[in-house]
Amino acid sequence: MFPIMIPEAFASLLAGYATCFQARSYPTFQWLVLGWVQCLGRRTLTAVALASGAIGQRHVSVFHRFFARAVWSLDAVGQVVFGKACGGCRRSTPCTWWATTPWPGRAASA
User: How many domains in the chain?
Assistant: First the structure.
């Protein structure tokens, strides 16, 4: 895959997600986020892939397989999103309520 040309600030924002994906899946994630931001109209998977400019370099099935078969952690992605959202909070203590809050199917940590 050819290098993705994105602004440095946006690349640093996406860099936090690198640990959530396998090495082969992370570039596909970058293409999808870039396409989602640039897509006009309905954000179908094919429209997002087209908007990213990846079609022609990668087959559209790569993006469908990302959601069907790629190994990545939705929980880890959620933690990165929440961490980035809490990063703007002015707190003297870190945001940790999510680690102790009981969720369906998960017991609360003590």
Answer: 2
Residue 88 has pLDDT above 80, yes or no: no
The model's pTM: 0.68
- DSSP secondary structure code for residue 53 in this structure: T
In terms of domains, do 23 and 68 share one?
Answer: yes
- Res 92: pLDDT: 56
Whether 81 and 44 map to the same domain: the answer is no
Nearest to 66 by CA among 104, 41, 105, 35: 35
pLDDT recorded at residue 94? 57
Please tell me the distance from the alpha carbon of residue 30 to that of residue 17, in angstroms, as a whole number. 9
Which residues span the domain enclosing 40? 1-72
DSSP letter for each residue of 65-108:
HHHHT--B-HHHHHHHHHHHHHHTS--SS---HHHHS-BTTBPP
